[in-house]
Known about the structure:
The structure holds 2 protein chains of 2 kinds.
Chain A: H1 2-32, H2 39-53, H3 58-81, H4 89-111, E1 116-117, E2 127-130, E3 133-136, H5 137-159, H6 161-171, H7 173-178, H8 183-209, E4 211-212, H9 216-232, H10 236-256, H11 265-279, H12 290-293
Antiparallel strand pairs in A: 1-4, 2-3
Helix pairs in contact in A: 1-5, 1-6, 1-8, 1-9, 1-10, 2-3, 2-8, 2-9, 3-8, 5-6, 5-8, 6-8, 9-10, 10-11
Chain B: E1 11-20, E2 23-33, E3 38-42, H1 49-57, E4 64-69, E5 72-73, H2 79-82, E6 87-90, H3 102-109, H4 118-128, H5 130-134, H6 145-157, E7 163-167, H7 175-190, E8 194-199, H8 202-208, E9 211-216, E10 219-224, H9 226-231, H10 235-239
Parallel strand pairs in B: 3-8, 3-9, 6-7, 7-8
Antiparallel strand pairs in B: 1-2, 1-4, 4-5, 9-10
Amino acid sequence: MDRIIQTLVDAISVGGLYALTALGIGLIFGVMRLINFAHGELIMIAGYAILLMFGLPLWLVVAGALAAALVLALAIERAAFRPIREADPPTLLISSFAVSFFLQKTMILFVGSRPKGVDFLAVLARQVEIAGARLQLLQIVTIVVSAVLLVGLTWFLKATRLGLEMRAAAENFSMAQVLGVRANRVIATAFAISAVLAAVVACLFVAQTGLVQPRMGLQLVVIAFVGTVIGGLGSLPGAALGGFLVGAATILLQALLPPDLRVFREAFVFVAVALVLLFRPQGIIPAHGLKERI
Amino acid sequence: MTGTGEMAPLLDVRGLDVRYGAITAIHGVDLHIHAGEIVAIVGPNGAGKTSLLSAIAGLVKPVAGTISLAGKSLAEVGLENVVRHGVAMVPEGRNIFASLTVLENLQLGATIRRDDAVAGDMEGFFSTFPVLGERRNQPAGLLSGGEQQMLAIARALLSRPRLLMLDEPSLGLAPRIVEQVYEELERIRKDGITILVVEQNASRAFGLADRAYIMSHGAFTLSGTPEALRAHEDFDAAYFGVSVTGDSPKSWSGGA
Lengths: 294, 256
């Protein structure tokens, strides 16, 4: 029984991390039809900010991670994506790959490609006992933080003027502009929110793995991207759900598969993804307004 | 054409050319609309009517010509600022935000406003269209076509425009609903808002307009008051894209 609870908590916490990452990608895709693979580098830069500032008070380290991701996100938007905003989605996609590789390789140039250890949030590594199951405190914190961010983002989108403009822009950008919605404001806000999500993911992920390396964002982003696709590209609830399902599925498969098949768990995940797309090509929660745009 | 009047026109379009790649959508269009006028542009599908409205709204960049509103050039203000200069548009197909609620669609219509009268304007709209008032918190995509059209018009009016442009407001609507839409436009006229309406449905638009232009193959072929146009011997030829001078008849296919 307690093993089941442990596995479930593990699945939910990893699912939460991927849901946050998928939301960061989904938010940018929603407003500008850009699949931002450079989202992984926002996570990475926040990771290095944690490494650099480790030892300072916790709030300062977290603020540093947030600041690093925010500055990089706004710089990428300004320098790389704003000049080609009118370009077609394949051009945007290739540009995002270019930005992603550029940032990764630059980082390798300066700090090397070897992972560096950092004992971030070590206090959360201890076990707590809940309902008879021994759980890692970090997992519970991850679940709570993910839930708070999901609720907060939902509130922002539903209850604020800027959130309304973002949802309108996601459905039909040029009509929103005809009504006077400012494109720069909406897109910069989307990048800023995605940076906050990336920084939080970085904090939790670094605390979990204890490692920082230039490619750390990539693996998260690839899996999370798959999540946004099965959730329904362009739909934010879809991105959160898809990211969660893919993340949780990897953990559940790890636990449920016979030991000699566990190394192939990703293959099983992707078979499941293929099946979802076969029956629901638009994703589990399809987006509005996407058809006219693509 | 209008006389070179005592007053400068509210909307002044001169020598407008719009091209999509190698295709010329409109060529050499001059259009003047005075404050308070209702002007209709009629013509078959593909005549360039939507391209003309899109150019005025800032959705497409003309390759030549000028567009000004009350003496101010709209060419360089940018798409999102055209509404700030007083031009609102109800696009073809209405383009309401289907996933947003009726109320949210209206709130977006008031994007450029910071005054306290917005809520009152919305309530006024809801009292005119109680059906939409009752459904204000439902997704706009669930509304009927006619209700969506009314919503799109209300959304445009919430910016308190000087010029309201409508692209095919009767398209795809039942005749009874078209009547309602045009009754609403009559009401808007009484508020002193200048209206530019584009229609394939010439007879309906003629019933509303003070003046009309017939557009064919990217240019105006005739203009005048609706009565004069109806009586004009070249009306059919002009509407159906046959050159008025008689040579090179061109075929036109498609429903009105």
